[in-house]
């Protein structure tokens, strides 16, 4: 059973503003990258679609506390973890770190993200929430409280 996943990457120039700081919205893109890789590590699709319907995970709540800035070419590690498993949703926790030159991590942000499993009818565009897939429930668990 898996409850966390971490990814590392470098900050790209296009992710920064004119002051050279990473724009706040890109922090959430980093979290989505970690979420997608978490599903990939489970060998499960994050999104599946055909002409008739799409299955996916829209965001219904996000909260992020920023502690430090990130800059162009900083090395970033994003840790995402399963905070709570609901009937139709997952509440994720996340922490974002800058990896310093000596390899030590400095936390730059933390927060939560709630996603709901849904089916979207691609013809009438209706959206219906679904129970979490049994294939997913068989592979994940909530992180320990002290994680």
Structural description of this entry:
The chain is mostly beta strands and 147 residues long. The protein has a single domain (4-137), classed as Roll (Thiol Ester Dehydrase, Chain A), CATH 3.10.129. Helix content is 15%, strand content 42%. It contains two helices and nine strands, in the order βαββββββββα. It has helices at 24-41, 134-137, and strands spanning 4-10, 48-49, 53-56, 59-66, 75-85, 89-99, 105-116, 118-121, 127-129. The strands form two sheets. A five-stranded antiparallel sheet has the order 1-5-6-7-4, covered by helices on one side. A hairpin with a 5-residue loop joins strand 6 and strand 7 (105-116). The relative contact order is 0.24. The mean pLDDT is 96.
Question: What is the topological layout?
Answer:
Elements: E1 4-10, H1 24-41, E2 48-49, E3 53-56, E4 59-66, E5 75-85, E6 89-99, E7 105-116, E8 118-121, E9 127-129, H2 134-137
Antiparallel strand pairs: 1-5, 2-3, 3-8, 4-7, 5-6, 6-7, 8-9
Kindly list the characteristics that best describe this protein.
single chain; 147 residues; mainly beta; Thiol Ester Dehydrase, Chain A; 5-stranded antiparallel sheet; 9 strands; 15% helix
């Amino acid at each position: 059973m898996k409850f966390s996943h971490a990814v590392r990457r470098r900050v790209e120039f296009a992710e920064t503003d004119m002051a050279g700081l990473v724009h706040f919205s890109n922090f959430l893109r980093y979290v989505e990258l970690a979420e997608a890789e978490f599903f990939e590590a489970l060998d499960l699709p994050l999104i599946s679609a055909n002409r008739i319907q799409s299955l996916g995970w829209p965001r219904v709540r996000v909260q992020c506390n920023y502690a430090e800035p990130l800059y162009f070419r900083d090395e970033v590690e994003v840790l995402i973890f399963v905070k709570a498993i609901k009937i139709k949703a997952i509440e994720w926790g996340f922490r974002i770190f800058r990896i310093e030159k000596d390899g030590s991590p400095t936390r730059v942000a933390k927060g939560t993200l709630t996603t709901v499993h849904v089916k979207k009818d691609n013809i009438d565009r209706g959206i219906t929430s679904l129970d979490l897939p049994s294939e997913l429930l068989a592979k994940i668990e909530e992180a320990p409280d002290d994680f």
